[in-house]
Design brief:
The chain is α+β, with helices and mostly antiparallel strands. It has 2 domains: 59 residues; 80 residues, 3-Layer(aba) Sandwich (Glutaredoxin). 45% of the residues lie in helices and 11% in strands. It contains 8 helices and 4 strands, in the order ααααβααβββαα. A 4-stranded mixed sheet has the order 2-1-3-4, covered by helices on one side. A hairpin with a 2-residue loop joins strand 3 and strand 4. Helix 1 packs across helix 3. The radius of gyration is 19 Å and the shape is elongated. The chain starts with a helix and ends with a helix. It binds FE2/S2 (inorganic) cluster. The site of FE2/S2 (inorganic) cluster has 11 residues, from helix 5.
Length: 165
Amino acid sequence: MTAAENAAEIEALVAAHRPERESLIPILQDVQRELGYLSEGTVTELSRLMGISANEIYGVATFYTRFRFTPPGEHTIRVCLGTACHVRGGRQVLGEFESQLGIKVGQTTNDGKFELERVYCLGCCALAPVGVVDDKVNARMAPKKIRHLLTKYGKRDREEDAQTQ
Ligand code: FES
């Protein structure tokens, strides 16, 4: 999508709401749903259209964890740290994902392939510890299973990367 198309889409989404400050959150929700995330350019455009400073928009948006400011990864990994998963090693599983992906919770890998999230109970505690990739639940996760799982979803090892260069 070009910048002009982006701007036109944002304008249309804003126009669907009443031109009031109270509309900011529903507008942010609509924009994120359509564009995937709130880029700096998107926030600037919203600021211009709504007459609200970009700082104020960031102030509101960062208050809610549902808003994101970086593009979503191709695959979303959610590691559960609810009580059942936590006591069965969920934190070690999360740590291993962070280590192998080279990112922290809330971040996306540089190649855009994976984003990592932490959740608190997915409702399948009997399978703890649980890690979900996209919509696929992986039961009884363990640090040693992670390399295989990531490879399955397209993570290339550094050695493979080096061979193709
Ligand atoms: S605590 Fe992890 S699924 Fe319930």
